[in-house]
Write a structure and sequence with these properties.
This protein has helices at about 30-35, 50-55, and strands spanning about 20, 30, 50. It is α+β, with helices and mostly antiparallel strands and about 60 residues long. It has a single domain (about 1-59), classed as Zinc/RING finger domain, C3HC4 (zinc finger) (Herpes Virus-1), CATH 3.30.40. It is globular, with a radius of gyration of 11 Å. The two termini are about 20 Å apart. The mean pLDDT is about 85. The structure holds zinc ion (2 copies). One zinc ion binds next to loops.
């Protein structure tokens, strides 16, 4: 079990329901905050992508 996604948003410190977005440094944000920040991580200016979807191996 290497990858782990936090269940709380780094911005609003709320629980994330539904999609979580992460940046390359694994900062984690909820969808609402991500949209507010235009998919750019405020900590490292990296792109925020849907984290949970990336953990799923799609054949
Ligand atoms: Zn948030
Ligand atoms: Zn970041």
């Amino acid at each position: 079990m290497g990858l782990e996604i936090k269940d709380t948003c780094d911005n609003c410190i709320g629980n994330i329901y539904g999609e979580a977005y992460i940046c390359v440094h694994e900062c984690t944000f909820c969808e609402g905050c991500t949209l507010d920040m235009f998919n750019i991580c405020p900590n490292c200016n990296g792109d925020l992508v849907k984290g949970r979807n990336q953990l799923v191996f799609v054949p």
